[in-house]
């Protein structure tokens, strides 16, 4: 999403024209000579439609980006609140994408201990997520 926002180009002109063709029928009047009022109105309408579609698309991308960034930041905060060796363990497992063999080697632990650490971290994080959800629900209902 960050890449899409940074390199935002908007809706393709062809897509806008196609949506305009199906949204309003145009008359069949043919006019020779200079640009008609109808052509000018169509161009202005096209610009408004293209701008509106670009704004809506960008706003949706940005809303999703903010939501995901907030969730990732909260996850990062939660990992620092875990007990014992779990903060570093979870960081290595999730953020560094270390496999179980790498975790076993780095922490000098067995395969089953990696599983226990993972389950313990998941339980602790579930409790913290539930607490956050409870606080948000109480805030919404107040």
Commentary on this structure:
- The chain is mostly helical.
- It folds into 2 domains: 1-22 and 33-80; 84-142, no CATH class.
- It is 77% helix and 0% strand.
- It contains 6 helices and no strands.
- It has helices spanning 2-6, 13-23, 37-80, 86-95, 100-107, 111-141.
- Helix 2 (13-23) packs across helix 3 (37-80), helix 3 runs antiparallel to helix 4 and helix 4 crosses helix 6 (111-141).
- The relative contact order is 0.08.
- The model has no long low-confidence stretch (mean pLDDT 85).
Strand content: under 5%
Q: Mean of the pLDDT scores?
A: 85
Q: Tell me, what's the shape?
A: elongated
Number of domains: 2
| Biggest sheet character | none
How many strand segments?
Answer: 0
Helix content: over 70%
Q: Catalogue the unreliable spans.
A: none
Task: Name its key features.
mainly alpha, 6 helices, 77% helix
Outline:
By secondary structure, the protein is an all-alpha fold. The protein has 6 helices and no strands.
Question: Could you outline the blueprint of secondary structure elements for this entry?
Answer:
Elements: H1 2-6, H2 13-23, H3 37-80, H4 86-95, H5 100-107, H6 111-141
Helix pairs in contact: 2-3, 3-4, 4-6
């Amino acid at each position: 999403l960050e890449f899409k926002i940074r390199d935002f180009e908007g809706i393709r002109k062809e897509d806008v024209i196609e949506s305009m063709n199906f949204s309003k029928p145009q008359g069949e009047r043919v006019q020779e000579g200079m640009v008609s009022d109808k052509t000018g109105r169509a161009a202005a309408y096209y610009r408004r439609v293209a701008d509106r579609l670009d704004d809506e698309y960008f706003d949706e991308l940005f809303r999703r980006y903010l939501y995901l960034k907030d969730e990732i930041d909260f996850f990062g905060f939660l990992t620092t609140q875990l007990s014992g060796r779990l903060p570093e363990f979870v960081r290595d497992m999730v953020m560094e994408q270390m496999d179980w063999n790498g975790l076993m080697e780095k922490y000098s632990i067995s395969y089953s201990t990696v599983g226990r650490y993972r389950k313990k971290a998941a339980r602790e994080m579930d409790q913290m997520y539930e607490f956050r959800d409870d606080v948000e629900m109480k805030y919404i209902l107040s």
